[in-house]
Amino acid sequence: MKMRFLYAVGAAGLLAAVLGEPVSGADAPAKPALPAIYNEDADALALAKKESKRVLIQFGANWCGWCHRLHKLFESDSNIAARLKEAYFVVLVDVNKGHNDEINKRYGNPTRYGLPVIVILDADGKALTTQDTGKLEEGDHQDPQKVLAFLNEWAAKR
Question: For the domain bounded by 34-133, which CATH number is listed?
Answer without folding.
Answer: 3.40.30.10
